[in-house]
Structure formats: C-alpha cells, structure tokens
Amino acid sequence: MTSTETPARPAHTRLAITALALAVVGAAVGYWGFVSGIDYALNGSGGGPGPSIVVFFVGAGLSIASVVLAIIGLMRSNRKTLPTIALVIGLLPIGALIVAVLATRR
C-alpha cells in the first residue's frame, strides 16, 4: 500500500522559504515607505512624512531579518540556491539606498 502523506520539509528549507518571503515583503514595504516619504516631503502640504517613516523602518527591519535568516540558511543547509536568492533580494533595498545616497552627492 502506498501512503498519501507528504513528507515534512526539512527545517532548513522552511528557513529559506521564510527568509525569501521576508525579503520580498520587506523590499516591497520598504520601497513603499521610501517613495511615500519622498512624496510627502516634496508635496509641501505641511503634514509631514507621517507613517511613511514607520513603514520604511518596518520594511528595513524585515529585510535585515531576511538577510540574517538567509545567512543562517546558507550555513546550515547543503542546498544553497534558495538562501542565496533570499540573501540577494534582502540586500537589494540596502544597495538601492546606497546608490540613491551616492547619486545625490555628485
């Protein structure tokens, strides 16, 4: 007889998937917070940046957490593809901010 139960995923695969999900969500939330903060700053309505700063820092925190989880996944697992993708996606917002800061210093 065959069993219809699916085998449980190893812990390192769940860790890599979690890191990848945090990286994608963190990048999207951080990008939205950054863009809406710039919109508030350039709008001149006097309302201030409001919650966009908080949203940006939440996105940055999620990206940093994804980078940490991806590094842990790289160290624990023999499979390196998924944690590497999560690491790259988690580092993209940091790289984008560095490029934005360097572009304004010309």
Average pLDDT metric: 81
Number of continuous helical runs: 3
Count of spatially separate domains: 1
Helix content: over 70%
The SS-based structural class is mainly alpha
User: Would you report the number of β strands?
Assistant: 0
Using the CA coordinates, give the radius of gyration: 18 Å
Give, in order, the helices and strands. Answer: HHH
Strand content: under 5%
- Segments where pLDDT lies below 50 for 5+ residues? none
Short description:
The protein is an all-alpha fold. The protein contains 3 helices and no strands.
Give an overview of the whole structure:
- With 106 residues, the chain is mostly helical.
- It has one domain (11-104).
- Helix content is 77%, strand content 0%.
- The N and C termini lie far apart (70 Å).
- The model has no long low-confidence stretch (mean pLDDT 81).
Keywords:
0% strand; 3 helices; elongated; mainly alpha
Helices, strands, pairings?
Elements: H1 11-43, H2 52-76, H3 81-104
Helix pairs in contact: 1-2, 1-3, 2-3
